[in-house]
Amino acid sequence: MALSAEALALVAQLNKKYGPETMIMASDMRIAPPFAAGNLPLDIILGGGFAANKWTEIIGFESSGKTTVVHKTIANQQAKDPDFSTLWVAAEDYDFDWAQKLGVNTDQVIVAETNAMEEAYEVMLDFASSRSVDAIVLDSYPALVADEEAAKAMDELSVSLGARVTNKFFRKAGKATKRSHLTEDRPVMGIVINQWREKIGGFSPQGTPKTTPGGLGKNFAYWTRLEVSRAEFLDEPIPGKGKSRVGQAMKFKTIKHKSSGPQKTAETHFYWDDSPSRGITAGNWDMVRDLMTWGVYYDVIRRRGRYFDFAKRTWDTKDGIIDSLRAELDLQDEVAAAVLQTAFHPEELEAAA
Known about the structure:
Rossmann fold; Rec A Protein, domain 2; 3-stranded antiparallel beta sheet; 12 helices; 14 strands
């Protein structure tokens, strides 16, 4: 049933009074695509990537890979668009060498070195409103100091000051990241890196209760809250010399996701040093492992006993298809595209069949 003339007239009247796009038809809304992380398991549980024009919190313990995930996401976006630019608010030191090792073109990264909370938030709001960058990253929240706290002596209490400022930031951030739903309007990816803390006096049936600095209010403002953790270390055998630690298995969990569902999990392998036995260079994911895992899961790669089929090709061993995937970048892209298509748009495949 079509909308009544009275409703359409009221929509036009209110748009004239309060500004264009104050009220629009939901069916006319243009949704900006997500920002792909470039890691297949992570993109699958994120619904295709980090949501555009929304804020994501990435949480974890020390050395779990939080900053690495962000750098790799930026590198992936730069690989698709060399003009992709980032504002990086470095409340902690910005590691120039590590960013480059992970594939980031640092010529496209603006670094704001400050741990003053109000200053950091104002800079983030100004850049979000200006539409002058494609990504805004805060690394990390616990290093920020509110002005009122900075003015206090070390023996003076400063409870909840950061939480109050942060809640104010998110109330203002909605307007800063708002984009047109009817026209092309440069989207932005917003990421805040945070850390786990033990929740003193709390209870959890799963073990030590955890919380994140910044209060509870911010949790409602985030579109996505992603936990990054380390499952195990990865070692490289060195003939006659034992083993060398070259990477780690990372686990991801969407604590909150407003458009793709919460509590989804995935795992991937990341290497900070070369792994000759696996054919992986430093600073990279084991993409072939991920392609095999999810390709078989979604029946994109079909397994028939010892045989593996993809498209019109067949391999008679698992090692055979793995060798082909490592050697052929085009094959990697084809399998990844087929997995994502099956995961998010299976109806298009059925229509084309």
